[in-house]
Design brief:
globular; 5 strands; 158 residues; 17% strand; single chain; Rossmann fold
């Protein structure tokens, strides 16, 4: 399970992103963050998601916050309208708006793999991937059982 910190000022997007990451990841959400608080998060989280476009719209993306994000060793998913973020750093994935779930999940998986290397081999993404690929459901059994019960129902009522 990855510990993710989401900086997102819009409630609807907070909920949508959190639900798309549940239950594989533990997500903490704030509307904005002080530059000093970002440095304090390093030991508590595996990944940081920043909706830079929304923060910029509400004048909450300060130069101090950019510097703190640039200096942080925590991998960052940067959500923006442009694919060239102002940050110059490694461990950064840009996800363009509108956010597509598959693109976000791929960025998270890649960056969490980097985070697991940084924290000594504890990776959350392989566990989630293994759980998804463990046992596929054979849908023919479900369909056949439903068809069988539907055909029997009318004969019983006659």
């Amino acid at each position: 399970m990855g510990k993710i910190f989401l900086i997102e000022p819009h409630r609807v997007l907070q909920q949508a992103i959190t639900l798309s990451l549940f239950p594989e990841h533990e997500v903490r959400v704030v509307e904005t963050a002080e530059a000093s608080a970002i440095g304090a998060l390093e030991d508590d989280i595996d990944l940081l998601i920043v909706d830079a476009a929304a923060l910029r719209e509400s004048d909450k993306l300060s130069p101090e916050m950019n510097r703190a994000l640039e200096a942080s060793p925590v991998p960052i998913v940067w959500i923006d309208e442009s694919d060239s973020p102002p940050l110059k750093r490694d461990k950064l994935a840009v996800v363009l708006k509108p956010i597509e779930s598959g693109v976000l999940q791929t960025a998270l998986t890649d960056l969490l793999a980097l985070a697991s290397g940084r924290k000594g081999g504890k990776s959350s993404s392989p566990k989630g991937k293994a759980r998804k690929e463990a046992e596929p459901i054979d849908l023919t059994e479900v369909v056949e059982e439903e068809s069988f019960s539907e055909t029997k129902s009318p004969t019983k009522s006659e």
